[in-house]
Amino acid sequence: MKALILAGGFGTRLRPLSCTRPKILFPIGNKPLIEWTLQKLSKFGVSEVIFAVNYRAEDIQKFCGNEKYGIKISYSYETSPMGTGGPIKLAEKILNLGEDEELLILNGDIFSDVDFGKLGDFHKNHSTMHDTVLTITLFEVEDPSRYGVVELDEIGKILRFVEKPKEKPVSRLINAGIYATNKKIFGYLKDGKHSIEKEVFPILAEKGLLYGFKHEGLWVDIGKIEDFMLANFKILEQVSNDKPQLAENVEINSKAKIIPPVIVGSNVKIDEKAKIGPYVVVGDDVLIGENCKIKNSILFGKSTINAGCKIKNSVLGEKVFLGKNVKVGKGCIIGDHAVLADNIKIAKKVTVCPYKEVEDSILKPKNVF
Ligand code: GTP
Questions:
Q1: Each residue of 269-281: pLDDT tens digit?
Q2: Smallest CA separation from ligand 1 atom 6, residue
């Protein structure tokens, strides 16, 4: 089985962290999202992956190369963004699917434990019996209004597909951004920029050619910062519920306190009386000074957090430098290489762009460009 991963989006909702990295390289529990996805694809016997890339394509190519976990990797390059339909059509030649060959299509920004094997089998059975062109993985959420919502019949046929419904949604089952399909899909896609969700799924549903495969389990679309944090918190609960997960060469002072769930990367030093946790991921090569307090936060790595800093419910990119006694309020996002001067206070919901130097306290929500 082959897989096409849509990985060309700008990730504007994850700015400023996405200014310096594509979404699929955002870390979940200290491992880039794409590694989780590729490992899972390999486990389910996928032998070839094609990345549909545009924004920061070179970062993706540098990280993934031409082979990972035994999967052959190639790239389909766009010169301008083509939405979610255009990149699939553009990749048709590279994919070179056989008559009965199945194809998985994944939104690259989904963190899930969807069973690709069962999804593939479901699609195969339904395409033999009902001529199904595409099977959408469905997930039930509390508030479906910001997703594609489906009306499903008892055999799994999608009767209606409505993208981001303005009126009362027909169900709470949403498009999970993971599809199984085959060669027939190319007949419904056009060249150039378009949205598969808005322009193709409603037509397939009308023709009775769209089916839904329900997934219950882990599913997070990391497209918003809260959801990116949630994906990390879910992994924290899985791997470190009652004991911190420590990588190699971690030095924790005996007077520091670690409150799980906490994941700590390699080459990290945590000084005296620091209090880390609960719900903290510390990336590789981070120094945390004495008396620091960090909770409900994600630190990407290579950062220096000097003595007496307090960080809560926030995300710090790579190579961030916090001077002494810096207080970072709830919901802050600090871009890569940012420098925050000694003794300053950053109010809640402040975002700091990469490489910015902040000399004075910021007392109201603000974007520092
Ligand atoms: P926002 O700017 O925050 O909305 O993020 P986004 O641009 O990634 O859009 P969205 O979250 O709707 O994208 C869903 C999936 O489609 C993600 O995996 C994106 O990487 C991918 N995607 C979105 N637009 C494009 C595009 O123009 N080309 C390719 N190849 N993928 C895209």
A1: 999 999 999 999 9
A2: 9
